[in-house]
Amino acid sequence: MDRQPVIETQRLLIRPLQEEDRSALFEVASDPMVWEQHPVHDRWRREVFEAFFDECLASGGGLAVIRRDKDRIVGHTRLDKYDPEEGGVIEIGWTYLERPCWGKGLNSEMKAALLRHVFANVALVEFRVGDTNYRSRNALEAIGAVRTDRYELGRYDGKRIVHLVYEIARDSFCKGPLSGAD
User: Which of 17, 73, 101, 123 would disulfide-bridge 97, Cβ 3.0–4.6 Å?
Assistant: First the structure.
């Protein structure tokens, strides 16, 4: 399973994250509104972003999202937690895009391309999203992800955080809203 593919869509280039992307990605991440509903709400701060970026590089699944018409990084996503057992499962997450990309269908375009890529190797894709991150929850539901009854508890900045688990199965993807999208 290639967790660092190079994928081109009509408007996007998705490619492996590189150290050289650090400054450009911080420019995207430095907008507090991007993290407003996220459980780690202060990733716009340099020191918090730096630790996050280092972890993304170390994960081996970090992907830079580049808007082809502007030839610059507009966001990040990640393929993680790949498990080949029982048909295979992988997580798509850690996704954020700069605000000018919001509401233009770029997230759906990116997710459709990633789903087509991973469903060649897995039967199920999972997404974890903060319970109060309604923007991301709505985006997941719009692409056909279904909320499960599973969740994960964590802590950040002394507070408990809850991540809800959404999923899309290969069979439902083939019948869903993104099956023919590009």
Answer: 101
